[in-house]
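Minutes, structural biology subgroup

Action item carried over from last meeting: produce the structure token record for site-specific DNA-methyltransferase (adenine-specific) (Limnofasciculus baicalensis BBK-W-15). EB confirmed the sequence was re-checked against the source entry. Recorded below for completeness.
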Amino acid sequence: MVSLPHPIQYQGSKRKLASDILRFLPKKIERLVEPFAGTAAISLAAAAREICQSFWINDLNNPLIELLELIIENPDNIADFYTEIWQDREDNSVDYYYQVRDNFNKTKDPKLFLYLLARCVKGSVRYNNQGEFNQSPDKRRKGTNPNKMRENIKGVSRLLHGKCIFTSLDYRQVLYELKNTDFVYLDPPYQGVCGNNDSRYYSGICFDTLVLELEELNRKGIAFAISYDGKRGSKTFGDELPKELGLKKIEKTV
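Output recorded by EB:
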């Protein structure tokens, strides 16, 4: 697959695995639903491959969803804002980053979030117990150059503009509202790595509840794929999803 635009650096994104994941999805999908969208890497890849032209992009992290909507539906607006805030930084850009972070935690302005994601350490999001973004800046770089950012934003918008529904709901509500013609790609917080609560995720989930929801998808005949847990060497992370779900397990080395 040709390299896809990616304005948002986000740890845990399936951008680099998207081509492999698409191999196991249907060749044509009426609507692709991502209840744990993150940066919507699978939707973006599916649009580029012309597998699907209708998408439901959901994530409980509301500023992230609002940012995705801006990128896709109002690319010039968010690109202009990013250019302005990137150019406004002073020589001590570390202090400037913390000022932007404080402002974001007060306002939850998604436009500020883009700058933080572009500048934070390894695109690695972190939250405190109050749900505030608390990741530090990468002191070796100053964030994506505005020209490159605009190019990436425009590229994403060209692929997904006018094709998406954006929501910030609990994943269970999304699954409840599905049509039987939908295909669902689930990429929940990994149970074996983080349990039900981890600073890397805006919110964790309960393993037993997830299993019940997958059982309900099977009962309704709604097709889905899920990326979940894994292993390193001989160490396996988390409990296996029950065999009763009838899933085909495919392990990918990354």
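Discussion: The chain has two domains: 15-74+159-245, 86-152.
Next step: EB to file the record with the rest of the batch.
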